[in-house]
Write a structure and sequence with these properties.
single chain, 263 residues, 2 domains, Rossmann fold, alpha/beta
Length: 263
């Protein structure tokens, strides 16, 4: 498996107990980092922590249950990382799922909730960990969506919020330079619990998951003819946060199987 140079480094991953977040935590641990991660589901977080501690050792892992929208909780998490690990070289902001809605059926409350989640899931962690990142001359990687550049009508609210996140990332890459690099990955369709639930709710019960995924990829026009894997997104994150990307900031890597239609 491809590994990256994270020996002696500390990484923080939000939303780290499942999907892309968990794949990133595992890859960074495999690459030699000490990793702190957080998520809202305390039970799942405990199960993941126990599994990872058995493989990598308790001294390389910190995990706390919290919401990234809770600014005091994120500040306390940063203080805990500073006390336990002494530094932060990489912050991975792994925001939540998309909201399926059109303009006509998105309420004011939905707009506010989506903007708060997408933007403050970036703002709160960056603000809390910035002193540690500056001291380490570290980096931030935002997990964003291709919707930021290529919106779809049935995800109008999420696409708009994702565009705001991408603008924020670009602004931060200038404001925080040269001490901190800031980059993003833009996801297409990556296999997750969300797609697993849609598969379970399918109307054509005779399809296997592989057949359903292939049909979905064909409908969406994905040139690589499949959904992405969380591990593939994790590799893009690990590269952007690594010393190998030391002259990369304000950039985005598309992890979309070729779904992008823009130049």
């Amino acid at each position: 498996m491809q590994r990256y140079d994270y020996e002696g480094h500390v990484a923080v991953v939000t939303g780290g107990s499942s999907g892309i977040g968990l794949a990133t935590v595992r890859l960074l641990l495999d690459s030699g980092a000490r990793v702190a991660f957080c998520a809202r589901d305390a039970d799942r977080l405990d199960r993941v922590r126990a599994e990872l501690a058995g493989r990598f050792g308790t001294d390389r892992i910190r995990a706390e249950a919290l919401s990234v929208l809770d600014a005091p909780a994120i500040e306390a998490f940063a203080a805990s990382v500073a006390e336990g690990f002494g530094r932060c070289d990489l912050l991975v902001n792994n925001a939540g799922q998309g909201r399926v809605s059109t303009f006509a059926d998105t309420s004011d409350a939905d707009w506010r909730a989506e903007y708060e989640l997408k933007l403050f899931s970036q703002i709160h962690p960056v603000r809390a960990f910035l002193p540690l990142l500056r001291a380490a001359r570290g980096s931030v990687v935002a997990v964003n969506s291709l919707l930021a550049l290529q919106p779809e009508p049935h995800m109008v609210c999420t696409a708009s919020a994702r565009a705001g996140v991408q603008s924020l990332i670009k602004s931060l890459s200038v404001e925080l330079a040269p001490e901190v690099r800031v980059n993003a990955i833009l996801l297409g369709l990556v296999d997750s619990g969300q797609w697993a639930r849609r598969f379970e709710a399918r109307t054509e019960r005779g399809e296997t998951r592989a057949e359903w995924d292939a049909a979905l990829a064909a409908r969406k026009g994905i040139p690589l003819a499949r959904l992405g894997r969380p591990e593939e997104a994790a590799h893009a994150i690990a590269f952007l946060g690594s010393p190998g990307a030391s002259y990369v900031t304000g950039a985005q890597i598309e992890v979309s199987g070729g779904l992008s239609r823009h130049i």
